[in-house]
Amino acid sequence: MTQNKKIKSIAVLTSGGDSPGMNCAIRSVVRTALGRGIKVYGIKRGYLGLLESNFIEMNASSVGNIIQHGGTILQTSRCPEFHKSEVRAKAYKILQDKGVDALVVIGGNGSYNGGHLLSEEHGLPVVCLPGTIDNDIEGTDYSIGFDTAVQTAVDAVDKIRDTAHSHERTFIVEVMGRRSSAIALHVGVCTGAENIVFPSESLDIKQISSDIKRGIKRGKSSSIIICAEGNEPGLSYKIKEELLKDSGIDAHVCILGHIQRGGSPTSIDRFLASRMGHVAIEALLSGNYPIAASFVKGEVIPLDLSQCLGKKDEYLPHFTDLARALSI
What is the pTM of this model? Predict the structure, then answer.
């Protein structure tokens, strides 16, 4: 939607779970805006910091030497109170009192919905950037931090594979992804895992056992099973127990956990975040909002924010077919 409001100052925040590359996005947003003569405020600790009026004015030096660092210099939080309309009204009033004309939100699905509601209810110009390792935001092929999270997990599994081979063991490696299969799927393919377990599927212990035995039969001395964490804790340990009971296979569990959120972002995430920050500000200043900077078929483009509010899952049949075809 094209608007004509003159943007003189913006605020930027990071919200929800942190992801590698958020700092690159902040840097791009700040420097693009400053270069266009726009005053920039950073909001510390996401929507919660907004409600606490936790603003800092930013300049080019504020984002110097951060592109290589994981996490977010603005810090982040989760803010369930933001679901309430009266809380969003308070947030809008705080932005007005500070003289902020527009808001840039970097985060996941919940963060997008918060920004969309601010725009819908109060006419605030809002642009969003997809910052989540889960890669589950509708409207974009990739989100900032996904590539780094996958690479971190791949590096870890490669090291585990060395130990698995040396000791002739089976390892169940649990990766992040409560509602998204994307990390598990990519890591499974990239590490040559014998099996990938998705929480959205029924657990097929006999198939997992068969896959492991098939490898042993042709001379393999070790196996790797990749497991997405899911909503309920303990899925990887359930697999371990069921394997031992069903087939006598004594597997070892390794839960990678939050190591996947941290670390220096890959060049792909740095470049993607930098492009998205630039596109977001240019769209905002051209009167194109509310939008989300989205990566679609190799290009970063502004999409209407209303198209990007749902969750997606990268669990696609042809990708799982690929994983199964390569794991024989």
Answer: 0.94
User: For 119-139, what is the mean pLDDT?
Assistant: 96
Q: What is the DSSP letter of 62?
A: G
- Is 204 one of the catalytic residues? no
Catalytic residue among 18, 97, 101, 134: 134
pLDDT at 314 over 70: no
Instruction: Enumerate domains of the chain plus CATH numbers.
Output: 9-145+265-308 (3.40.50.450), 147-261 (3.40.50.460)
> Closest Cα to residue 129, out of 148, 147, 142?
142
Evaluate the omega torsion of the peptide bond into residue 130 and state whether it is cis, within 30 degrees of 0: no
Type of residue numbered 170: T
pLDDT in tens, 5-17: 789 999 999 999 9
Token code pair at residue 257: 């956990």
What's the first-to-final CA gap in the chain, in angstroms?
50
Please state whether the peptide bond connecting residue 233 to the residue before it is cis, i.e. omega within 30 degrees of 0: no
For tokens 């393999």, name the residue: 220
